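Board notes (copied after class):
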Amino acid sequence: MMTLDTLNAKFGLPGHISFKEKTAGFVVAEVTNAAGTASIAIQGAQVIRWAPTKEKPVIWLSTAAKFAPGKSVRGGVPICWPWFGAHATDSTFPGHGYARTVYWEPVATKALSDTQTQLVFRLVESDTTRKQWPHTTPVECHITVGVSLEVELVTRNADKIPVTITEALHTYFEVEDVRQVKVLGLENTDYLDKVEGGKRKQQAGAITIASEVDRVYLDTTAECIIDDVAGKRRIHITKQNSQSTVVWNPWIDKATKMGDLGENGYLKMLCVESGNAADNTVTIQPGSEHRLSVSYRVSR
């Protein structure tokens, strides 16, 4: 892992990017431009905050989030890779893969304009990760901060055989009151209801939240809109090369057991995750790549 001095010397951009230590051993890139601000953890290449100018944060971070090397951070945009959910054959491997808790090295930063700043990170493999994923699949995360937040996860297959992954950008969005939120765009879409053991259902109308929700919507490339009625704004989620959308809120009982959502945190957040999960696996041929990309913006 590079030192702060090295990070700032190689990848810092005056007026755009500076690297700082949030807690001991936990480094973040602070991004500022004319269109907004963001904080991105080196661990997991995880956006933990994004706020367009004159807007409250769009990306939610728990008030009780812990920032420690090797531990997942509650909130932001965790990267679930190279599998989503539990590992298919080994329950001792971390849920949602290891990408969100390992070091990603910066490989490039650039001020695209006064209103757009881009950072590129590459996941650093180790003996531990290779035991969990014995494939040669270099992966990068490209993050562009501006009027919109754009995140692209790029997986390359450098092996000699096809490789199959599942994945998601497990994004936590900040809302004023989740009980007054509507999620639009998934009407009439089939989903797996994980609260009811994976039962297959079909969405009728807009999604509303009044209890625990944990759903994998299948075979959908649709734009989703979080209509934050109490917050008087809409969050638009567009995506490419994603066939699944996951909607999740733990509600009060599970949130209490989790311990790091903060007091009534479940009322202030909603996860709408773009990815490829369950039925929607992705197979990457040797020498090929897969790009999962999302764009988030706000309207009123």
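Comment from the instructor: Helices lie at 4-11, 127-132, 251-258. The mean pLDDT is 97.
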